[in-house]
Amino acid sequence: MVGMRVERGVASLKVRAVVAQALLALFLLVTLLVAVGTAYMAVQEIQTGYSSYLITLPVFSFYIALAFLPAAIALTCWVWRAHANLYADQLDGLTTSPTWAALGLWMPIANLVMPKGAMRELWNRSHGEEAWFAQQSVDAVNSWWTCYVVGIVILSVLTGIVIVDRITPFMFLTPPGTNMLAMAFASSLLAGSAWLLIRIVSRITRAQETVTTVGDTFA
Questions:
Q1: Contact criterion met (CB below 8 Å) for 110 and 66
Q2: 53-88 and 139-167 helices cross at what angle (nearest 10)?
C-alpha cells in the first residue's frame, strides 16, 4: 500500500514540477528583462543627470510581482506534494510537515528563514539520506536562498525609498543611476534564484522518482 501511495504521489509531483518550472522560467525571463532595462536606464541617468526612478521603479516592481505570484503558487503546490511523499513513505525523523513547508513560503518574517531549512530537509531525505543528515548543508539550496533573500531585501529597500519620497516630505538623495543599478542587481539575483530553483525542483523530483518509490530503500 505504501508503494502504491508513493507512486501516485510521485506522478502528481512530476506534474506539479513541470508547472512550477515553467512559471519559474517565466519569472526568470521577466527578471532578466527588468535587469537589462534598469541597467540601461541607469546608464542614461548617469549620462543625463536626470533620475526617473520614482516613476520607473514601481512599474518594474509591478512586473516582477506579476510574474512572481503564479510561480510562488505553483512552487507551493510542488513543495506540499514533495513533503507529503516523504510522509507517505513513512520516513522517520521528519521535522517539517507538508502544511508547514507550504505555509512557510508565505508567512511574513518566517518566509525569510523556514523555506531554506524545509528545502534542505526535502533535498537530503529525497536523496535517501538518514534523519541525522537531514539538515546538512546543500550548496544548491544555499545558493538559491542567498540570491533570493538578498534580491528581495534590496527590492524592499528600493520600494521603501519610493514610498518615503512619494508620501512624506522627506527625500532620499542618491546620485543618478544608483537606484536603477541597485534594481538591476536585485533583479539579476532574483533571476539567478529562479534558475537555481528550477534545477532544485528537477533534482528533487527526479530523486523521489528513483529513490522514494522503492519502499525497501527506507525500510
A1: no
A2: 150
d(CA 119, CA 199): 13
CB atoms under 10 Å from CB of 88, counted, come to: 21
The number of distinct structural domains making up the chain is 1
**Pairs from 96-105 (Cβ < 8 Å, separation ≥ 24):** 96/121, 96/122, 102/76, 102/77, 105/72, 105/75, 105/76, 105/79
Q: What is the pLDDT of residues 11-60, one digit of tens each?
A: 788 999 999 999 999 999 999 999 999 999 999 888 887 878 888 888 99
Residues 81, 14 contacting (CB under 8 angstroms): no
Count of other CB atoms within 10 angstroms of residue 78: 25
84 within 8 A of 98, measured Cβ to Cβ: yes
User: Which residues form the domain of 45?
Assistant: 2-218
- pTM for the structure as a whole: 0.88
- Residue 199 grid cell: 534545477
Amino acid at 215: G
